[in-house]
Amino acid sequence: LFRYFLRQCGDRGEAEELFQDVWMNLIRARSRYQVRAKFTTYLYALAHNRLMDFFRKKSVVFVGASELENVADCTMQPPEEQASLGEQVAKLLRLLQELPPPQREAFLLHEEAGLNVEEIAAATGVAKEAAKSRLRYAVQKLREGLRD
Amino acid sequence: LSEHDSELSAIYRESPREEPGAKIDAAILAAAHREAKARPRRSVTRSWGIPLSAAAVLVLSATLTLMVLYEPDAPQRIAPPPASEAPAAKQVQPGDDERRREAVSDKSEKKAESPAAPTALPERDAQASKARSDDARFEATPPSESQDKASQSETRRAELAGALPRPAPQDREDTASARLKEEMPEQWLARIEKLRAEGKIEEAQKSLAEFKKRYPHYAVPDWAKEE
What we know:
The complex is a heterodimer of chains A (148) and B (227). Chain A is mainly α and 148 residues long. Chain A has helices spanning 2-9, 12-28, 39-58, 79-98, 101-111, 117-124, 128-147. With 227 residues, chain B is an all-alpha fold. Chain B contains eleven helices and no strands. The termini of chain B are far apart. Chain A binds chain B through residues 2-3, 6, 12, 15-16, 19-20, 23-24, 27-28, 30-31, 67, 70-71, 73-75, 85-86, 88-89, 92-93, 110-111, 117, 132, 135-136, 139-140, 142-143, 146, and chain B through 1-5, 7-9, 11-21, 24, 27-28, 31-32, 35, 40-43.
């Protein structure tokens, strides 16, 4: 969840604030929680709503580059492959920042939260076809960007 | 074109796994513990929902039961008249009969006009219209027979109101013929005499025996006394 916020807003401080807000809201509203879907879907639906509020207040969608600083340190590959993989990861994160926010969100929900298309649709409040389309375009653009 | 690319996922999984600060985690955990220790709050609708629903169902059931039981025209409320009232019914005056007829007619008309008529109305209307047609027949009869007709009308009205058990169609025919003989002894005797004249002696004797059984104190003509 923290990385979901971090990749979306790009600022660690803001990501932490959003992260804490979502958990606090969840704790306060626990009596209203009803098991209708996977808990992860419910959690990310709250996160999506909080993020939309955040974007609305800021009126600007931006992604910082601070998260790219330690990319090479966290890999366990041989040095020659490590460099190559590190470059790919850095490139992927950069491409991720360039994606339109709905597509980026769909990709992050898929990769970070492990949600499938139906669950992404439920968490973001869109139709299944729209969620599928967003995720497909995100994957296509990232794949093409990595090949270039 | 797919929504999932395993190679892309593998590269993404190599990206830094940032975590929130320890302070954030501690604050969230503390808040969760505080809420968990606090008395569980139940919403008003949840805590009172089931008892209120049960009470509402009970009140509704009781109301409906009372409405059905105390409905003025409910058939089960009309008790059959006691046996001692039967002779009194024969002394009903023609004027009373007329008033009752009007009352039944008005009542059935009011029910037909009522928009919220219950489901039993069609049967009641049918009974009322039958009563009207029966009454119309009674009005066509000569005035000399009005006393006998009054008792007949009373019996039929009691039947229509559900006070007396309604006979089956076959039984109804038998009862009607028996009633006819019962109510008009002169005509019955005339028919017996006609049978004798036609030479149907055995049938005439059988009918006469039935007549005597029915009217033991009736002053029969001489030819009937001989039989």
